[in-house]
Amino acid sequence: MNAPDRHELFLLEDGEKKVEEDPETRVPNAAMFTFNKEDHTLGNLLRAKLVKSEHVLFAGYQVPHPLFATFKLRVQTDGEVTPKEAVVKACQDLVKELQMLDQEFTKEWELKKIAGAGADI
């Protein structure tokens, strides 16, 4: 069909960058970030995290075409931090939250196994 090979959706080609930044010239303190080999999952997580930041005035993303694993994230800040700093901070916060989620899930999974093993006695 028209869909690309599955490995093309997540493996970067030689010389291809994961994220590219283009400053916005029409709006102050704004930039457009292009994320390669990513989709709505990361785009929506980043947008949601960015809009909660006190220094971010606007954050939105778009997926230019559904067959290509790429999205564009537009970020505008109040000038106290750069758009790049805001995106990096949002990524760091998301990694911390996902690590906490992993720990909690693992803990609950182990407790469920222990409780299930005790019911067999």
In short:
With 121 residues, this protein is of the alpha+beta class. The protein contains 2 helices and 4 strands; from the N terminus they run ββαββα. It is flat.
What's the Cα radius of gyration?
19 Å
Number of strands: 4
In CATH terms, what is the architecture?
2-Layer Sandwich
Percent helix among the residues? 40-55%
For the report, how would you describe the main beta sheet? Answer: 4 strands, antiparallel
CATH-wise, what's the superfamily?
RNA polymerase, RBP11-like subunit
Structural class: alpha+beta
Strand order in the sheet with the most strands? 1-2-4-3
Which H/E pattern describes the elements?
EEHEEH
How far apart lie the N and C ends?
54 Å
- Count of discrete structural domains: 1
> How many separate helices?
2
What value does the average pLDDT take?
91
Approximately what portion of the residues adopt beta-strand conformation? 15-25%
How would you sum up this structure, described in words?
- By secondary structure, the protein is an alpha+beta fold.
- The protein has one domain (6-119): Gyrase A, domain 2 (2-Layer Sandwich), CATH 3.30.1360.10.
- Helices cover 40% and strands 22% of the residues.
- It is built from 2 helices and 4 strands; from the N terminus they run ββαββα.
- The protein has helices at 40-51, 83-119; strands at 19-23, 30-36, 56-62, 70-77.
- It has a 4-stranded antiparallel sheet, covered by helices on one side.
- Helix 1 (40-51) packs across helix 2.
- The longest helix is centred in the C-terminal third of the chain and has 37 residues, at 83-119.
- The model has no long low-confidence stretch (mean pLDDT 91).
